[in-house]
Amino acid sequence: MKCMSLRCMRKNQRGVIKAIRANGEMGRRLRDMGLVPGAPLSIKGRAPLYDPVALRIMGFTLTLRNNEADHIEMEVED
Amino acid sequence: MISSTIALAGNPNSGKTTLFNALTGARQQVGNYPGVTVEKKQGTFSLNGREFNVIDLPGTYSLSAYSLEEMVARDYLALEKPDMVVNIVDASNLERNLYLSLQFMEMGLPVCIALNMMDVADKRGISIDIEKLSSLLGVPVVPIVARNGKNGVKALLESFSGASPQLPPVSDRKQGADLLNPLVSISYGNDVDEALMEIEKIVVENRFLTDRYPARWIALKFLENDEQILKLALEYGHGTDNGCPCRDCEHRMLPCGVEQRESDLCRHPFFQKIDQILFTLTQHLEDTIESDPEAVIADHRYGYIRSILKQGVVSRNYNEERLQISDRMDMILTHRLMGPVIMGFIIYALYYFTFNYSERPVAWLDFLFGWLGGTVDTLLPDGQLKSLVISGVIDGVGGVLGFVPLIMYMFFFISILEDSGYLARVAFMLDRVFRVFGLHGSSVMPFILSGGIAGGCAVPGIMATRTLKSPRERMATLLTVPFMNCGAKLPVFMLLIAAFFEAHRAFFMFMVTFISWLGALLVAKFFRATIVRGESTPFIMELPPYRLPTVRGVLIHTFERTWQYIKKAGTVILGISVLLWAMMTFPGLPDEKADMFENQKREIIESSPDEDSLFFALDTLEKSRAQAILQHSFAGRAGKAMESVSEYAGFDWRINIALVGGFAAKEVIVSTLGTACSLGETDAEEPESLAKKLSETPGWRPLTAISLMIFTMFYAPCFVSVVCLSKEAGSWKWGVFTVVFNTLFAFMLAVLIYQAGSMMGF
Fold it and tell me: Rounded to 10 degrees, what is the CA torsion of A4, A7, A9, A12?
């Protein structure tokens, strides 16, 4: 197990959200979409210009910009 | 007949609108919620002899009052108190969907859950124990197939009120709600629960909003830092005799605004007490678990949902690694290289179909209005009335209706792209580019339609900004799409290019497109740094699975939007059209001038040797008379008066009048220029003769043409666009702003180019 920011995750890598360091509107939107500590997710792909990133969580696909992904700390396998 | 009100609520893409369409069919109305641009859809249907009003609430993921949609949905539920909330839940995505359901239950609303897309869940190998889910949540749960909604909803209605289709009357709601939905009380952990109880007590003691919401829900919102509730709490007690200690307002009916929040004087003891609890809790959570109340509450909500789902409600028998069809499609459609190429093709096709397929109906409408004009021409005697009916009324109404086929086709194809889920992918792929300019990935569609590929139209472009959900980005897009080169600006460019740059046609056409994009994006960036500044809205967006759009959904969508356009635009436009006609007609020639033309006419008739030369001479005379009338009209005088300013950009009075006329429709620039140069009305489609004339007119040089092209590109959009833009922006203020700002901006550029060019000797 090691920790990294969501931005640095590779395509198809899986991990569990460790912490979310965002408050206000951003924090709320992330939580409304199911991004809460303990939730498992995997990286589905990136847009042609590497930003935003698409991820799979709770069985649906969500997109986030890289600077928004920075607020999310992940715990990944290996 | 007793009627009950049902509100449909749920996440976006959960099939809410499909169910709404299936229930109400054609019996629906679309409007806006007062003061905001969020669509309000209502309809009716009857079942077992009972009448039901259905409201399709905007799709939301939560009820946190951050976005307009959430505010609207929440206010509706709290104030209108529908008899039942039918919460459409996507069965293949229970965990996130139930997050919203919990919030309805916490609000004490009579909720029924309609489980949609069981078939999709089945395919994915998810099976759901519906009875268990219902008993654990404490609300009725019924599986439905949204596409043929009545069956499922009938079952829902029955489960709601026992076997009888009779709903409890509104007055008994509390009781009914208690029976069916004992207010869920989720535990949010000791610290939060304690604070909740304390705040709840204070809320009840002060009867703060208790007529609208359950006290526990209000307490929760305080902990969630909810802007609306905090604001109401700050205003609480002010202007009443409840003892507002605020020295500034002294009960003078002035609610203290949020800006006064810092001043403790302004706070009612009620708020002070709550604030103290909030402060203590926030500190405590920060010190112990490095978190805040909002996050803790969300964690516990999801925890509650997971604990329910784990009690045997959901069983999965599938391999998570297995790719669904949608994922496989995305591997191609959002592929790094293929994705953008395919997107290019799809956008081009959309554009091609919209503008080509609408060509024929547009021609029919043109024909119809031409015929109408012709009929009026023969029926009415010559004079001002005839001119008013033909040039003012018929041309004005024709101008509005002429856009209808375009708008219909545009919404038809956009609905397909939107309902299928592809539009979200377009936003995903292009967001990085548009973000540089403070816009959003979804801004691309409006830009393209307005003429991003030369030849579009700003009206459908403006209306397409509805697909943008982020308010600041939407406003910046809305204000800059009119800079694109619509089909009506093209004849102007063609004319000028043909007259002065015949040899470099392709290059100039390319530059025209390039400059309009550059200008629009840079101005958007400027707006985002000034009048609509603010952080970019988070791009936290769902990529819904690809779905085949329903014919019915697409058609309903298309027709209701088109009808809205006709209704909104039609009324205002007729008035402006008549006004413009009057400006270019009145006050007419003074008597001596009119006599002069009459005398000349008589002379010509008497002196002409043969019919051909008579005809020619009369035609020339008629053209110079038309020029004289135009020059003498209010528009002409304005054009003349503006000459002292406009000459800095190289425009004489003729160009000024033509540009004033261009406010009616950009192609009018060409025809008015024709009249002003005493060439008679010039057909915008065949401007060759005018081009020749222009290139020979003294004072006209290539630099004038470039300056005029730049001005035409950026100045005030035609008034149909201005009307639509004001409606979409929600205020006439924005329409006025666009006219003033764009004209000044265009003039500045034109002057810059003309003066710099003159100095360099062009």
Answer: 140
Q: Render pLDDT for B579-628 as a digit per residue (tens, 0 to 9).
A: 777 887 778 778 787 888 888 878 877 777 777 777 777 777 877 787 78
* Residue B231 in tokens: 């604001």
Alpha-carbon B321 to chain mean position:
39
* Among the listed residues B483, B490, B482, the one whose alpha carbon sits nearest the alpha carbon of residue B455: B490
In degrees, rounded to 5, the angle at the alpha carbon of residue A55 between the alpha carbons of residues A52 and A56 is: 160
B71: domain CATH number is 3.40.50.300
Chain A closest CA to B358's CA: distance in Å?
A: 33
CB-count burial class (<10 Å; 0-12, 13-18, 19+) for B455: middle
Domain that includes residue B32, residue range: 3-180
End-to-end Cα, chain A, rounded Å: 6
Query: Residues of chain B whose pLDDT is less than 50?
Result: 162-182, 239-265
The size of the A-B interface in CB pairs under 8 A is: 107
Query: pLDDT digit string (tens) for A45-59?
Result: 999 998 899 999 988
The answer to the question of residue B131 being in a domain is: yes
Asked if pLDDT for residue A23 goes beyond 80, the answer is: no
Q: Is the peptide bond before B381 cis (omega within 30 degrees of 0)?
A: no
B79, B98: one domain: yes
Q: Do B433 and A49 touch (CB under 8 A)?
A: yes
Å from B268 to nearest chain A CA? 25
- CB spacing of A65 vs B93 below 8 angstroms: no
In terms of domains, do B47 and B105 share one?
A: yes
Per-residue pLDDT of B708-754, as tens digits, reads 999 999 999 988 899 889 988 888 999 999 999 999 999 999 999 99
Domain boundaries, chain A: 2-76
Q: Which of B273, B291, B309 is where one domain is finished?
A: B291
Arch. (CATH architecture) of A2-76: Roll (2.30)
Rama region for B239: left / alpha / beta (φ>0; ψ in -120 to 50; rest) = left
B476 occurs within a structural domain: no
* Pairwise CA distance, residues A75 & B618, whole Å: 88
> What is the rounded average pLDDT for all residues in chain B?
81
Phi-psi category of B711—alpha, beta or left, where left has phi over 0 and alpha has psi -120 to 50?
alpha
Reported as type and span, the H/E element at residue A60 is: strand A60-64
pLDDT at B568: 62
B101 domain residue, yes or no: yes
Number of domains in chain B: 2
Give B73's contacts in chain A (Cβ within 8 Å).
none
Q: What is the pLDDT of residue B242?
A: 47
Closest to B135 (Cα-Cα) out of B159, B107, B170, B165: B159
Query: How far is CA B283 from each of CA A61, B279, B289, rounded to the nearest angstrom?
Result: 35, 6, 10
Q: Is B480 left (phi over 0), alpha (psi -120 to 50) or beta?
A: alpha
Tell me which residues of chain A, numbers 35 to 64, contact chain B at a CB-CB cutoff of 8 Å.
36-39, 44-45, 47-52, 54, 58-64
User: B644 phi and psi, to 5 degrees?
Assistant: -60, -30
Residues B11 and B117 in one domain: yes
Decide: B112 and B137 in contact? Cβ < 8 Å.
Answer: no
pLDDT of residue B179: 40
